[in-house]
Amino acid sequence: MCAMFFPKGSGRKSQMNGKKPAILETEALTRRFGTLTAVDALTISVDAGEVFGLLGPNGAGKTTAIKMLTTLLPPTSGRARVAGFDITRQAASVRRAIGYVPQAVSVDGSLTGYENLLIFAKLYDIPRKERESRLRDALAFMGMGQVITMPLFFASNAIYPISLMPGWLQIVSHANPLTYEVDALRALMLAHGTSSFGLGLDFSILLAATAIALTVGARLYPRVVT
Question: Is the pLDDT of residue 152 over 60?
Fold first, then answer.
């Protein structure tokens, strides 16, 4: 499934039919790869504030359609406008108006945190002169607490199933106490909830992690306060 969200009031008046302010509209949008027609004369109109999804089996053309609408792939024929901008003639404006929600972790593990932030600063069109200072402010705002908690949060099943993670991150998640905490909470709080690892293992891991944290904290506390 592919889905796009369009906030209210973010589009211009339709220039295809002149009637209503559609946030997304296509007219006979088509993409061919040689003799294969991946998207065949797609014509849709979506109003601002709607959540619109494309459903279909593998090979139905969902990804190809999304790639055209996000200006990553030029159409063979037809036309489309996103937030009032033509996907072919105004590609840069379309990219500034849309958002992206990854299915899995979207940061590059081979880059530093600063380098990943720099990439997103460029994607969001932050002026070159402002990037350095805004990145420093963002890093300072996050603080050391986030440095510790955020990796634990993303390397767990708190956001998405472990099966969707890259292989190396799945290994990390199984050593992450937060994974077992989330597993236990879902089993206890959700109707007909079940534990993937078993509540016994969940609580054993959490008790062990708590004991380790208390031991380390007790040893470090005198050094911190003095």
Answer: yes
Residue type, 216: V
* More confidently predicted of 8 and 177: 177
Closest by CA to 22, choosing from 68, 75, 69, is 69
Which positions ≥6 away from 44 have C-beta within 8 Å?
Answer: 24, 25, 26, 52
The DSSP secondary-structure symbol of 12 reads: P
pTM exceeds 0.85, yes or no:
no
168 within 8 A of 175, measured Cβ to Cβ: no
Percent of the chain with pLDDT over 90: 23
| Cα separation, 194 vs 188, whole angstroms | 8
As a whole number of angstroms, the distance between CA 108 and CA 217 comes to 32
Q: Hey, what are 206's tokens? A: 């959490």
Please state, for a pLDDT cut of 70, what percent of the chain lies above it: 76
Closest by CA position to 207, among listed 187, 184, 186: 184
Identity of residue 40: D
Dist. CA 157–CA 168, nearest whole Å: 14
Residues with Cβ within 8 Å of residue 37, at least 6 apart in sequence: 30, 31
> Is the Cβ–Cβ distance between 80 and 26 less than 8 Å?
yes
- Tokens read off for 223: 């050094």
The torsion angles phi and psi of 23, rounded to 5 degrees, stand at -85, -25
Residue type, 76: T
